[in-house]
Amino acid sequence: MFRSFGISSFIKSPLLLVLWLGAACSVFGQDRVLYKQANVPTAQRVEDLLARMTLEEKVGQLSTLLGWKMYQKDGEEVTVSKAFEEAVQQRHIGMLWATLRADPWTQKTLTTGLNPRQAAEATNAMQKYALENTRLGIPMMMAEECPHGHMAIGTTVFPTSIGQASTWNPALIKEMAAAIALEARLQGGHIGYGPVLDLAREPRWSRVEETYGEDPYINSQMGVAMVSGFQGEDVASGKNVISTLKHFTAYGVPEGGHNGTSVSIGQRELHESYLPPFKAAVEAGALSVMTAYNSIDGVPCTSNGYLLNNVLRDDWGFDGFVVSDLGSISGLKGSHHVAATSEDAAKLAINAGVDSDLGGYGFDKYLLEAIKSRKVSQAVLDQAVSRVLKVKFEMGLFENPYVDPEKAAKEVRSTSHVALARKVAREGIVLLKNEDNVLPLSKTLKSIAVIGPNADNTYNQLGDYTAPQAEENVVTVLEGIQAKVGNDVQVNYIKGCAIRDTTQSQIAEAAALAAKSDVAVVVLGGSSARDFDTEYEETAAAKVSDTEEGEVISDMESGEGFDRMTLELLGDQLQLVKAVQQTGTPVVVVLIKGRPLNLNWIDANVPAIVDAWYPGQEGGNAIADVLFGDYNPSGRLTISVPRSVGQLPVFYNYRNPQRHDYVEGSAAPLYAFGHGLSYADFTYTDLEITTSGNARSPKVTVQFEVKNSSNVDGEEVVQLYVKDMVSSTVRPLMSLKRFEKVMVPAGGSRKISFTLGAEDLQVLGQDLEWLVEPGNFQVMVGRSSRDIRLEGEFVLE
Q: Which residues contact 512 (CB under 8 A, 6 or more apart)?
């Protein structure tokens, strides 16, 4: 405003001159404030800013509010909402969560939600308000859900995590994570929630689809890939986001499969199985960790100081911040009943090492009360605030708080990202069975019947934590098959039945269609697709509610909150596939689902079975690529498929002794961990094991050759397992220690070499100290945990 005055104006008005000098000094003084100077070390910037903050401003920085309430959309224009202004001015908030999220829970649709350009404009408006209308001008930090794509309108939807892991290709998952990070960052996001590192050893649990499976080692490798892809080499790059590890810890094995309930595991199992994936991701540089809803041995994870301080920070050197899961601080009082008041719940959480309150109603006024009543010290508060501010500085938010809406509109869901989604989906498809080489299908067939509730269902294909989709963005199985064969093959479709509802089934009509076709592709499974009639918990988990008589039942049988008591195919799905099979037409079953289901009858009676999990927006194209042989399937299971819930828990690396069969049948799973077929045949030969060093510093090299003995090029997933023959504590029957996906051309061979070290051979002794014990070890190399092709032993002196 001073530019409109000439120097003569100041000479004529001494008062104006004084005001100008005061304003100038204020501006210049701001430039000299340490926390605003980019070249000052982060620790000094944090210390300087912290010293300037009031108690209320400090507490506000720890509140992460629900973000989708913070913008106002009027036609194409997006501005900040009154709720945002009040939260900033009255509560001094520092973070938002799921600002760009759209789904039935948030009530944001394709119409009421934001496209990528509008999303960037909305986050820019929020940053501008926070910077220009607060005393200290601290930028906002935006966290977004990013497990298999940024959960926002117009982004790329990749397969859910269980499908990602089935690729057994960490390099590909790192590339995918980088694409997700870019899409979130371009729209103004700074934190990506993911990866989920929970071990899935309870298939009745509703969130199996969000995990990488049952094994600590493959979960570790996938977790490291996600963290590396999300965060890149520099989180201030403008292309990367901070990775938040979920859920710390042992969340995936709730008693009875009930989401978020208590977990009963010992310290040895905790440290040997459930913590290693988190440790590997922390060592890869993860800057944020989220607490789990469950308790372990009677202590809720959100108030577990041993886990958050002793293990995470002291032992592992974690240097980021810890955020509660939504409502888990208030859950200390309302769910776990370990706190009598909300003030006590806030005290327990922050004293245990929780730095940020997701939801904004766990700390806030209750934390202020706890500090004023001296239940929480200023030092503990300052430490938590410092951890949050440190990340804001490291991301460069004080220097670069804004994003480019034009760039967001252009680069989110780019052609290359869509192609990558197809690649990830394709590599994650598992060929479970292929009797008499029914697959691949010929493109010269005269007619194909495409049948089933998931054959042409957009949302059933995408999994939980997915935003609304424009219809043209998703390719279903029916559309993928039609595109693959063109007009030369007659493709006929009928739904046949729903996932759960039985009032609209067309079993006879489906059988008739199959009978006059050369082959029937029957697409069955489950659904995590939420609809606008679904009720939700305060934590956003879906509620299982009673259905009125005559009301159509939702397809949803999986996804957060939808735990199962059985693993049966629901509704009329089994009846449908039985009717189709009885026509005598060759049948291929394609499964789209989020958890292992009972496939006993299908396995015994259907010649070809393909498991695609939730394959994302390009799932239809990817499945068609596999069905017709344009891609040789290379996916492998990362979770065992049980024969019955009576077997549970079923996972390959359970501890000795070996299990015996039941009166009713086998104790072994129907399909074992690591299983997956190929159109190619592979042989394994020439195992060589060499050791050097000793138990104090072991080095074991395992070499062998893999040959493709067929006339089809193919990728093989070679798997190396180790068994400790005698140890001081009870060990697993076998443990995955290395794997590699290798392309082996028809008639060709590949020499494979793996090296094992102390961390691969160590045991947690009776004193809960890690050590490598001398003795005999068995090496097993093969195509799955149940298909071992080579065995050998080595001795550590």
A: none
What are phi and psi for residue 267, nearest 5 degrees? -60, -35
The backbone region for 706, taken as left when phi is positive above 0, alpha when psi lies in -120 to 50, beta otherwise, is beta
Domains of the chain, with CATH numbers? Answer: 33-410 (3.20.20.300), 429-638 (3.40.50.1700), 682-796 (2.60.40.10)
- Give residues with Cβ within 8 angstroms of 139, minimum separation 6: 127, 130, 131, 392, 397, 398, 401
Residue 725, CA distances (Å) to 117, 669, 728, 781 in order: 59, 24, 10, 16
Whole-number Å distance between alpha carbons of 244 and 320: 10
DSSP label at 594? Answer: S
Beta-carbon contacts of 516 under 8 Å, excluding residues fewer than 6 positions away, are 447, 449
Scanning 587-689, the segments in alpha helix (DSSP H) are 600-605, 619-627
Cβ distance 485 to 491 under 8 Å?
yes
Q: Which long-range contacts (CB under 8 A, 24 or more apart) does 335-340 make?
A: 335/260, 335/293, 336/295, 336/300, 338/300, 338/303, 339/303
Residue in 103, 198, 215, 325 annotated catalytic: 325
Other beta carbons within 10 angstroms of residue 535's beta carbon come to: 11
What's the rounded Cα separation, in Å, for the pair 503 and 579? 17
What does the mean pLDDT of the chain come to? 94
How are beta strands 714-724 and 735-744 bridged, if at all?
A: antiparallel
Query: pTM value?
Result: 0.94
Q: State the average pLDDT over residues 409-418.
A: 98
**Spatial separation of the C-alpha atoms in residues 419 and 621, rounded to whole Å:** 10
pLDDT at 486: 94
193, 618 in Cβ contact below 8 A?
Answer: no
State phi, psi for 34 to the nearest 5 degrees. -55, -45
Q: What is the pLDDT of residues 317-355, one digit of tens each?
A: 999 999 999 999 999 999 999 999 999 999 999 999 999
What's the DSSP call for residue 460? Answer: G
Q: 493: part of which helix (H) or strand (E)?
A: strand 490-494
Q: How far apart are CA 46 and CA 253, in angstroms?
A: 39
φ, ψ dihedrals at 425, nearest 5°: -60, -45
CB atoms within 10 A of CB 313: 18
Q: Is the dihedral of CA 166, 168, 174, 175 positive or negative?
A: negative
The one-letter code for the residue type at 726 is V
DSSP 667-714: SS-SB-TT--B-SS-EEEEEEEEEEES-TTS-EEEEEEEEEE-SSS-E
- CA dist., res. 252 & res. 544, Å (int): 19
102, 148, 536, 638, 794 from 107: Cα distances, Å: 7, 21, 12, 34, 60
Active site residue 325: yes
Name every residue whose Cβ is closer than 8 Å to that of residue 417 and which is 6 or more positions away in sequence. 156, 179, 183
3-state SS record for 163-204: HHHCCCCHHHHHHHHHHHHHHHHHCCCCEEEEEECCCCCCCC
Given a cut of 50, is residue 215 above it in pLDDT? Answer: yes
Buried (b) or exposed (e) across 487-509, using 16+ Cβ within 10 A? eebebebbbbbbbbbeeebbbee
Q: Which contiguous run of DSSP H or E holds residue 576?
A: helix 573-581
Per-residue pLDDT tens over the stretch 712-770: 999 999 999 999 999 999 999 999 999 999 999 999 999 999 999 999 999 999 999 99
